[in-house]
Amino acid sequence: MTSSSDPTSTPDPGPRSPAQRRNSLVDAHCAACEGGVEVMPPETARQYLETVAKWELDESSRSISRQFNRGTFVNVIELINRIAAVAEREQHHPDLHVTGYRHLKVVLTTHAIGGLSKNDFIVAAKIDQLLD
Ligand SMILES: C[C@H](O)[C@H](O)[C@H]1CNC2=NC(N)=NC(=O)C2=N1
């Protein structure tokens, strides 16, 4: 039997830093979602947001977004193509808004449930990693 009081069990790693938590999102993969999953509560979403701090939670806590200024239209399209590759790999797709030829707003929500799931934070972390 393994329990937290068992001295032979794996030690509790303790609280992890936002960077460590981000790495575990980067290493994770999206679960296929066609409904039947609870929308993530706002409090949980705020905790996940600490790991992808450049993203904003919308007022209803149903989506997160990040804005980019890539300088030129071609750079925006290049970023979109890289994001598209991540989205296709994960089978979880952001809404992409290009405005003023050089601005890109990436919005993540889980359409099947009309709100946030862990999938959104996994893709957000993988998008952030593209820009490291
Ligand atoms: C089975 C597969 O996970 C679904 O069809 C996917 C495709 N990509 C998706 N992307 C997003 N953002 N939300 C979804 O609900 C969704 N559904």
Indicate the topology:
Elements: H1 18-27, H2 42-49, E1 56-57, E2 64-69, H3 73-90, E3 95-99, E4 103-108, H4 118-130
Antiparallel strand pairs: 1-2, 2-4, 3-4
Bound molecules: ligand H2B.
The site of the ligand C[C@H](O)[C@H](O)[C@H]1CNC2=NC(N)=NC(=O)C2=N1 has 9 residues, from loops.
Catalytic activity: (4aS,6R)-4a-hydroxy-L-erythro-5,6,7,8-tetrahydrobiopterin = (6R)-L-erythro-6,7-dihydrobiopterin + H2O
InterPro entries: PCD_sf, Pterin_deHydtase
GO molecular function, one term: 4-alpha-hydroxytetrahydrobiopterin dehydratase activity
Written description of the protein model:
This protein is α+β, with helices and mostly antiparallel strands. It has one domain: 2-Layer Sandwich (Gyrase A, domain 2). Helix content is 37%, strand content 14%. It is built from 4 helices and 4 strands. It has helices spanning 18-27, 42-49, 73-90, 118-130, and strands at 56-57, 64-69, 95-99, 103-108. It has a 4-stranded antiparallel β-sheet. A hairpin with a 3-residue loop joins strand 3 and strand 4 (103-108). 24% of the residues are buried. Residues 1-8 have low confidence and may be disordered. Bound molecules: ligand H2B. Residues 32-34, 91-93, 110-112 line the site of the ligand C[C@H](O)[C@H](O)[C@H]1CNC2=NC(N)=NC(=O)C2=N1.
Helicity level: 25-40%
User: Could you state the CATH homologous superfamily?
Assistant: Transcriptional coactivator/pterin dehydratase
Question: Given this structure, which CATH class is correct?
Answer: Alpha Beta
Biggest sheet strand order reads 1-2-4-3
Task: Write the H/E string, N to C.
Answer: HHEEHEEH
- What form results from the Cα inertia axes? globular
CATH topology description = Gyrase A, domain 2
Largest sheet features: 4 strands, antiparallel
How many extended strands?
Answer: 4
* Distinct small molecules bound, one entry per kind: the ligand C[C@H](O)[C@H](O)[C@H]1CNC2=NC(N)=NC(=O)C2=N1
Radius of gyration: 17 Å
Distance between the termini: 42 Å
Task: Determine the mean pLDDT.
Answer: 90
Question: How big a fraction of the residues is strand?
Answer: 5-15%
